[in-house]
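Tutorial, part two.
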Amino acid sequence: FWRGGTYLSKTTNVGSGAIECAFWRGGNAIMKWNGSGGVEISLFTDGENKIARNKFQKLFKDKLQWLHVVTFDDFPRGYGNVVNFMSEIKVPPKWLKSYV
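Running the prediction step on this input gives:
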């Protein structure tokens, strides 16, 4: 998911847990650990990059095999008051060409 370039990572202890932030060109990841068995991860990538998301998840789960996904949310970006994934749009709207 990360192809080199500048990478910044910072860990901050909060109470019994920790927050880990990682930033790279093309995205970022924020992990919150509650000091027990709960971990929340927010992954942001430029564009719809399901390959990067799946690779990130696999790498993370391979390192911490005791973790398992309990909930998963996928948030698209939008324009105006309309929010869609590009994969949901069969024919891109005419105005899209001027913004891409």
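The longest strand covers residues 7-14. In part three we will examine how such features are distributed along the chain.
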